[in-house]
Amino acid sequence: MCGIVGAVSERDVQGILLEGLRRLEYRGYDSAGMAVIGGDHSVQRAREVGKVAALGDAMKANPLAGHLGIAHTRWATHGEPSQINAHPHMSGERLAIVHNGIIENYQELREELRADGFEFTSQTDTEVVAHLIEKNYRALCNLHDSVRAAIARLRGAYALAVVHADEPNHMVVCREGSPLVIGVGIGENFIASDQLALLPVTDRFMFLEEGDIADIKKDGITILDREGQSVEREVTRFEHGADSADKGEYRHFMLKEIYEQPKVIKATMEGRVTKTRVLEQALGTEAANLLENVRHVQIIACGTSYHAGMVARYWIEELAGVACSVEVASEFRYRKHVIQQDTLFLCISQSGETADTLAALRQAKKAGFRAALAICNVPGSSLVRESDLVIMTQAGPEIGVASTKAFTTQLTALLIFTLALARHNGLPEEQEAEIIEALHLVPGQVSDVLALDGEIAEMSKAFMDKNHSLFLGRGSQFPVALEGALKLKEISYIHAEAYPAGELKHGPLALVDSEMPVVTVAPNNDLVEKLKSNLEEVRARGGELFVFADRKADVKAEDGIHVMQIPSVHPITAPIVYTVPLQLLSYHVAVLKGTDVDQPRNLAKSVTVE
Ligand code: HGA
């Protein structure tokens, strides 16, 4: 959340920074700003409320010329979205800063700096950091040292980029708990919250470690670690095509990403499964060792990734016979837990920078778990670097704030992991082969569901004027219902709740009437007959049902029951396939309602604040 970009170059940096912000806008979009050090060695700043386009428009009339600059797109945590709270923040006329994260002790620092005579113009925690660095600068006259001295006093999470007009040839950047990457150019260098922002200018990146402080000049990068020791960070090349941040022919990134699913699910399987078996070594050289004797799996995640973890629990207990617990990271990290012996800690995060998940992982590493496994979509992210074992999803960059392809590739990776674990726990070879064969069919089955797009768009009209909806599923389809409800909430702003279908009569049935559409996923598994009875309960109360059902499940369309037939799928892989029609349904409802599909209100991607 919040996007940072910076550049130091021979050329004017305004265009590079604006394009970087446009690409980072998924991280926050309530205001945007830029500060550039011009030829006269003064700081010029522009800030606008709203999206990056508003800043771009303002800058057409008043361009900022200069070879060193920093910029920011905001997702407010401290202080309303407004021009005065927009970054960059300044201390005096000569120091400017952009920040991603939260400074927890900002109140006490603010009081101290006020007593020192600093005047505050915003409500943000960030402005405190600007003044703190400036205070140090007055004594130390060196930006790097001033930043180091300032961050020693900060509690919380931050990625910072700082420029000072007295040192017009470099910026100082650092990170602790929020992501920051350095883009390595030729005769120019860059920084950003993620690689995507910089793809038009470079494909070579260095990832800062927690506690690093770097000086970025156009012809050199120096990095010191937390202890002040000079360190080298490896330069890696970006693997995905530079077009990933483009919508192409699609109206929205979300739709593009829904349609990419057959390809990326396949990519996530590549190199990890044969026709009939999981290649355990492909999960890491240590995989066999770490998975042996696992007696319990503790899954931690947030949001959509949490739903993926909930599906995995059904798989892990059913196929591996290993106990599995799933918990949202923000709860897990703040309670005492009993750790059973030989528990594997499994974190799921699209970005690998989710603040709560990372914090939970760091606690877990001290707490005596057997090992930590990450399922993640971003190579080089903190989660990936800090885990013992990693399964990368191969979704490619996901730009739409509402997660789609990241979820289905997480499920794919989790099923592969489950089978590897299950093999250590006596899953018969034939059963492994049956499931892998079913997994190979999933990309084709997802394509078949995508072919229903037109019909689903038609169905979505029934939701346009509704304020509430219910989603039902049983067994491993319950998390699919949860994910479907989350998608509808996120992008159409319709209140949606998901229940295990068997819970209906224990409360939510009271809500059912003709104004409450009820969406149900009904694959042909051993729970389908029970599910049909639940549907009757809804129908008997006048509720309108929208059922995504296996052809063979024999759910009949009739008055008030709309049935969309889904290709027959294996019960184990069904959650992956049944997610897709629910994504399309939410997408079309949102389009009909005219909401901002890719950047829904109040949300942002990559939740790097707590
Ligand atoms: N706390 C700062 C930055 C917010 C942020 O990083 N959001 O993700 C602010 O409120 O401006």
From TrEMBL:
Domain of life the protein comes from: Bacteria
Gene Ontology biological-process entries: amino sugar biosynthetic process; carbohydrate metabolic process; fructose 6-phosphate metabolic process; protein N-linked glycosylation; UDP-N-acetylglucosamine metabolic process
Subcellular localization, as worded in the UniProt entry: Cytoplasm
EC number of this enzyme: 2.6.1.16
Annotated ranges, domain Glutamine amidotransferase type-2: 2-219
Active site (UniProt): C2, K605
PROSITE patterns: GATASE_TYPE_2, SIS
Keyword Transferase in annotation: yes
Cellular component terms (Gene Ontology): cytosol
GO molecular function: carbohydrate derivative binding; glutamine-fructose-6-phosphate transaminase (isomerizing) activity
Subunit structure and binding partners: Homodimer.
PANTHER family: GLUCOSAMINE--FRUCTOSE-6-PHOSPHATE AMINOTRANSFERASE, ISOMERIZING, GLUTAMINE--FRUCTOSE-6-PHOSPHATE TRANSAMINASE (ISOMERIZING)
Name of this chain's protein: Glutamine--fructose-6-phosphate aminotransferase [isomerizing]
